[in-house]
C-alpha cells in the first residue's frame, strides 16, 4: 500500500517503523527536519518537510495516488484539515485521523461516516473515514486492567465475546509447576488456549507438556466469562479492587474517573486549581483533590496505603514515574503508570511499577486494524510491538481460500503463529485441531514474530476462483 503518515512524533514514527518493515510504500510528512532525517536514516521511507495540511506538502508526498492518509500530528485541527484536503483535492480512498479533544469528539455531526452510495460533494463535515482517540483507547485499556485484577493486558475480540489476557504466573497458582495439559483435567468445564509464553523475554510456543514456571508471562484466550477462572489457575486469587486513586486530571484522568466512579470509590488528584473546579463540576461521585502527587503528606493524608490501584496519567512521564514509586512505597496495592516515552517502558515495568501503559502501542494497534490486507477487523500490538494478535474473517470456499473448509491442523501457519479461537455466529470456539474453519468465521491468531504478518494476511485473502 502507498501510505502517507502525517506527523513524525512518537505515534507517527512508531507507525512508520511498523509499516515500513512490512514492505509498504511509506512517506512521512512533518515540519521538523531533524526528526525526519533521524527516521530516514533508520527506516526505508520517504520524507517531506512541511506543514501536513498544506496541499503543496501533500502533493509533494504523492497524495494523488496514495491509498491512505493517516493524520497523527500533535494538532487535532491540522489532522482534520489535512484529511479534508486529501479527500477533496486528491480523492484519497481512506483517511484516518487522530483527534484528542473531547470538544470535537462529542459532536459526531462534525464528521461523516463513509457511505459509498453518496456523492462526496454532497457530504457535510470533515471527510474522515476512521477517527482514532488515544485518550478513549487508553481509558478502555486501563479500565479492563482494573476489572481484571492481576492482568498485565486484556484485549477484546468479536465485540467482547472473547478475550486475550496476559498474566504473570506466580507461586500459589494451581497450574504453576505443572504441564499445560493439567489445566484440562483440573478445569474440565472451562475451555481455554494458551497462545504463547514468554520466559525471560524469550518466546516459547506452548505444547501440552510445557511446564508453567513462576515468573512466566502467559497469554491465554478464553470466552469473556471464563477469564477470571483461568487467571486463578496462574496466580493466587486477587480480591476485586474497590478503591482507585487517579493522579492527573487531564483528558485521560477525567475520562477514567467518569468511567469508574459508579462502580468504584474514586479519588482524583490534580495540581491545577481551575482544572480542579471544572472536574468537581463534571464528575458526580469522584472526590477531586488539589495538590501534587509527589507530596508524601498528601498521599498519606488520603490513606494511600488502603488504595487498591494507583493510576498515574499526567502528561509528564517523570512525574508519573516518581508519583507511582512513592505511592507503591507508601502501600498502594497496584500501580499503573502512563509512559509516553517507549524507551522507558521496558526499564520500569515489573519492578515497583506493576504495569507501564504506552499510549503509542495502544493507538498503533487500532491504526493497524485499518491497514492490514484481507478482512482484518481487530489488531492488537503486544509486548511493545514485538508480537501481535489479530482477528481476521475467513471468506470464500474450499477452492478459493487457503483456510475455509480445512481443519486447524491442516492449515500451514507461519512459524511462531497460533490460532487461539474461532467466533462463529456469536459462539466462541476455542481452537482444537479437529475444528474446521467455515465461511465468515472470525479467526483470532497470535503472532510471536510480527514480521510474519504478510504470510498470515495471504492465508486470509480470497483467490480469483471465488469471483
UniProtKB/TrEMBL annotation:
Presence of keyword Ion transport:
yes
Q: Where is the RCK N-terminal domain?
A: 1-132, 241-357
Please provide, in alphabetical order, the Gene Ontology terms of the cellular component aspect for this entry. Answer: plasma membrane
Q: Show the coiled coil region(s).
A: none
Q: Which UniProt keywords apply?
A: Ion transport, NAD, Potassium, Potassium transport, Transport
A Gene Ontology MF term for this entry? potassium ion transmembrane transporter activity
What are the residue boundaries of the RCK C-terminal domain, all occurrences included?
152-236, 377-462
- Name the chain's protein: Trk system potassium uptake protein TrkA
What organism does the UniProt record list as the source?
Marinobacter gudaonensis
Organism lineage reads as: Bacteria, Pseudomonadati, Pseudomonadota, Gammaproteobacteria, Pseudomonadales
Amino acid at each position: 500500500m502507498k501510505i502517507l503518515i502525517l506527523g513524525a512524533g512518537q505515534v507517527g514514527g512508531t507507525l512508520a517503523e511498523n509499516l515500513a518493515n512490512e514492505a509498504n510504500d511509506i512517506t512521512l510528512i512533518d515540519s521538523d527536519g531533524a526528526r525526519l532525517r533521524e527516521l530516514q536514516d533508520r527506516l526505508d521511507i520517504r520524507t517531506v518537510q512541511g506543514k501536513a495540511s498544506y496541499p503543496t506538502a501533500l502533493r509533494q508526498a504523492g497524495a494523488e495516488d496514495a491509498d491512505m492518509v493517516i493524520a497523527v500530528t500533535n494538532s487535532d485541527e491540522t489532522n482534520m484539515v489535512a484529511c479534508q484536503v486529501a479527500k477533496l483535492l486528491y480523492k484519497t480512498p481512506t483517511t484516518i485521523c487522530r483527534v484528542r479533544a473531547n470538544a470535537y469528539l462529542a459532536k459526531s455531526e462534525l464528521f461523516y461516516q463513509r457511505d459509498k452510495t453518496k456523492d462526496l460533494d454532497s457530504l457535510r463535515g470533515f471527510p474522515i473515514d476512521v477517527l482514532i482517540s488515544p485518550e478513549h483507547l487508553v481509558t478502555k485499556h486501563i479500565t479492563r486492567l482494573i476489572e481484571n485484577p492481576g492482568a498485565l493486558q486484556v484485549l477484546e475480540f468479536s465485540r467482547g465475546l472473547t478475550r486475550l489476557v496476559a498474566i504473570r504466573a506466580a507461586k500459589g497458582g494451581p497450574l504453576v509447576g505443572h504441564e499445560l495439559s493439567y489445566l484440562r483435567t483440573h478445569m474440565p468445564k472451562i475451555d481455554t488456549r494458551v497462545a504463547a509464553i514468554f520466559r525471560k523475554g524469550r518466546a516459547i510456543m506452548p505444547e501440552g507438556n510445557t511446564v508453567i514456571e513462576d515468573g512466566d508471562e502467559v497469554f491465554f484466550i478464553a470466552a469473556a466469562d471464563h477469564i477470571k477462572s483461568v487467571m486463578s489457575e496462574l496466580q493466587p486469587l486477587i480480591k476485586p479492587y474497590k478503591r482507585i486513586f487517579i493522579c492527573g486530571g487531564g483528558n485521560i484522568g477525567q475520562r477514567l474517573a467518569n468511567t469508574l466512579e459508579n462502580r468504584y470509590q474514586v479519588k482524583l488528584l490534580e495540581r491545577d486549581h481551575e482544572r480542579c473546579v471544572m472536574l468537581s463540576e463534571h464528575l458526580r461521585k469522584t472526590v477531586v483533590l488539589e495538590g501534587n502527587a509527589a507530596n508524601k503528606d498528601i498521599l498519606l493524608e488520603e490513606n494511600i496505603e488502603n488504595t487498591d490501584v494507583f493510576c498515574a496519567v499526567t502528561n509528564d512521564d517523570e512525574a508519573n514515574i516518581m508519583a507511582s514509586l512513592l505511592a507503591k512505597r507508601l502501600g498502594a496495592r497496584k500501580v499503573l503508570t502512563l509512559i509516553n516515552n517507549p524507551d522507558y517502558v521496558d526499564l520500569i515495568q515489573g519492578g515497583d511499577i506493576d504495569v507501564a501503559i504506552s499510549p503509542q502501542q495502544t493507538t498503533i494497534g487500532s491504526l493497524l486494524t485499518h491497514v492490514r490486507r484481507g478482512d482484518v477487523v481487530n489488531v492488537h500490538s503486544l509486548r511493545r510491538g514485538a508480537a501481535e494478535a489479530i482477528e481476521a474473517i475467513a471468506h470464500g470456499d474450499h477452492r478459493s481460500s487457503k483456510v475455509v473448509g480445512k481443519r486447524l491442523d491442516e492449515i500451514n501457519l507461519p512459524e511462531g503463529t497460533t490460532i487461539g479461537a474461532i467466533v462463529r455466529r456469536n459462539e466462541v470456539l476455542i481452537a482444537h485441531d479437529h475444528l474446521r474453519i467455515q465461511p465468515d468465521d472470525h479467526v483470532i491468531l497470535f503472532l510471536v514474530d510480527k514480521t510474519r504478518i504478510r504470510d498470515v494476511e495471504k492465508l486470509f485473502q480470497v483467490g480469483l476462483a471465488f469471483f
